[in-house]
Amino acid sequence: MTTTKEEVMAEAMNMMDITSDNLTMITLLSTVQEMIRTFRREHPGMLPAEADARLVITLNQLSTSKENLNKAGESLDKLLIDKLQSMELPPHYRSIETSRQLITSETEKSIKLTFPSDGNCTAKAVWYPKDYIGPAQDQNRIIIRYYPDWTFQVHEVDPITGRRIGGSIPINISADSFKEMVTTANESYGLALQTAEFENALKISERNSMGRNLKL
């Protein structure tokens, strides 16, 4: 179940009320403690030993209660902070510029990126959402945008026909490994690696902004 930011803020207000109640209770306990200490100090020997011993026990119990209330308040504060931190904006996207030659096929929503084979009999291919690929200033290049928590499914394909190699098993790679693939392709095309954060030129779909698992 997804928790909305409004629900988190409502819970934060509840926790603030609980913390306020805890502070009030701690203040009352401290007042009672001080009253007992004052009475024992100003009236020594007035109470029977048994009654005085009970007051000492009460003082210790009040101290324990205050300590527990403080710990409870700290725990609630930590829970609130952790929850609010988890609701922060997703990690900022990364961008890398590469050759338009990587594009070998296209559908309504996806673009197929096929990476050079480096003399091997197979090449690697990844289907990529169009929303995250945009034009570069150089019309022969494109900008690929991705998030650092994405994973990519890579298939072995025939470098000439682009068809999947029979019996090959796709592998999942991290965003850093995908960047290395693009970097290697840039080197083979004679392009300098260019990474930057671009705030425009790309249409971004918010629902796909985190945890995307890209498959062929």
Concise synopsis of the structure shown:
The protein has 216 residues and is an alpha+beta fold. The chain is built from 3 helices and 10 strands, in the order ααββββββββαββ. Strands 2, 3, 4, 7, 8 and 10 form a 6-stranded mixed beta sheet that branches. It has a 4-stranded antiparallel beta sheet with strand order 5-6-1-9, with helices on one face.
Summing up helix and strand content along with how strands pair, one would put the structural category as alpha+beta
Detail the poorly predicted runs: 193-216
Q: SSE order in H/E notation?
A: HHEEEEEEEEHEE
What profile does the largest beta sheet have? Answer: 6 strands, mixed
Per the principal axes of the C-alpha atoms, what is the gross shape?
A: rod-shaped
Give the fraction of residues assigned to helices: 40-55%
Distance between the termini: 28 Å
Rg, rounded, reads 32 Å
- Number of helical elements: 3
Strand tally, please?
10
Whole-number count of domains: 2
Overall mean pLDDT score?
Answer: 76
Our estimate of the beta-strand percent is: 15-25%
